[in-house]
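User: Can you recover a sequence for this backbone? Please restate the input before giving your answer.

Assistant: Of course. Working from this structure:
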């Protein structure tokens, strides 16, 4: 399957409306006048945009896996979470009970459906939802802010400006340090600062444990493949968070030098030429997708005649891996632990 903009089996096209009539008819809340210095107000900067809330948001909508899991991890669940959408896999086990208690829809809501939940805050784990183009766009952040809805994008995916998407990601921001800083900022905005500090400490400890385990080991070269429907492949590039996960797990991205976009189409000849030691799939895309569902992707790679001579195929080091597990999120340390199990089994 392909990634995000292609692998989704069917997505409603969310059309941005420029008409003032549409803005007023959608049921969004009126835009409040909030001064940054107002008592109790909190202002943080996210993706270069100032986000000011008069107090902890009470009606939060989470879009996509990283956003949903972030809110559960911060303890912001059934009492303040008015909607969740668009999971690529089950949430991590510690959050399963909390997720079962909140509203969920499998596809991205259209703009009107999102606003009908009357959110005061929208957290997105995918920057395309605020892009001005593409069939995954709901609205821009500026548009929602004008309606009184504050927004946030998980920081490693920050585009260089509102309305842009993956092509505008700053590679320097694709790091665990960015995730830690993002959690601290969100903790202040959501009124759960102590929990955010605890969570960052937990994640740092988990990363350190994985890194200590693989320290000094030879780093295998790994390709993270996306199986497209026509039999071709794309790879996770150097700016994809999968690269950071591989590094934490004591491996390196065989295509890490590619940085023009997160997913890059490559020929089978180039796959053979780069000859990765290990291949991981990018299996996706619904709330029930688990590792075992990736066996079809694994078999496609293992039985592709064009790849028969590659080291990973010859040694049968092709493993199912979830697209959700390479998200730029708190899920990354868990994913690094799994990758370390695969590439350093001894």
């Amino acid at each position: 399957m392909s990634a995000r903009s292609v692998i989704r089996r069917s997505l409603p096209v969310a059309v941005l409306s420029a008409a003032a009539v549409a803005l007023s008819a959608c049921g969004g809340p009126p835009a409040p006048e909030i001064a940054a210095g107002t008592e109790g107000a909190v202002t943080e900067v996210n993706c270069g945009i100032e986000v000011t809330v008069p107090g902890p948001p009470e009606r939060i909508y989470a879009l996509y896996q990283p956003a949903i899991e972030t809110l559960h991890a911060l303890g912001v669940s059934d009492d303040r979470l008015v909607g969740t959408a668009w999971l690529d896999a089950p949430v991590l086990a510690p959050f399963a009970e909390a997720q079962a208690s909140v509203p969920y829809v499998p596809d991205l809501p259209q703009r009107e459906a999102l606003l009908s939940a009357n959110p005061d805050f929208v957290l997105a784990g995918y920057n395309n939802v605020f892009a001005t183009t593409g069939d995954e766009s709901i609205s821009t952040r500026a548009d929602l802010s004008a309606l009184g809805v504050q927004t946030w994008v998980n920081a490693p995916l920050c585009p260089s400006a509102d309305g842009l998407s993956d092509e505008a990601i700053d590679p320097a921001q694709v790091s665990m340090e960015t995730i830690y800083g993002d959690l601290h900022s969100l903790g202040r905005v959501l009124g759960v600062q102590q929990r955010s500090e605890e969570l960052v400490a937990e994640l740092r400890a988990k990363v350190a444990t994985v890194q200590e385990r693989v320290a000094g080991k030879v780093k295998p070269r790994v390709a993270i493949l996306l199986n497209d429907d026509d039999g071709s492949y794309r790879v996770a590039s150097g700016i994809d968070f999968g690269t950071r996960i591989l590094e934490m797990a004591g491996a390196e991205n065989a295509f890490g030098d590619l940085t023009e976009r997160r997913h890059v189409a490559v020929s089978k000849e180039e796959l053979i030429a780069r000859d990765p030691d290990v291949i991981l799939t990018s299996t996706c895309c619904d709330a029930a997708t688990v590792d075992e569902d990736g066996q079809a992707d694994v078999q496609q790679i293992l039985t592709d005649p064009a790849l028969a001579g590659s080291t990973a195929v010859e040694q049968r080091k092709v493993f199912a891996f979830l697209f959700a597990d390479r998200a730029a999120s708190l899920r990354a340390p868990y994913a690094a632990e799994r990758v370390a199990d695969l590439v350093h089994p001894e």
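That completes the design. The chain is about 30% helix and 15% strand.
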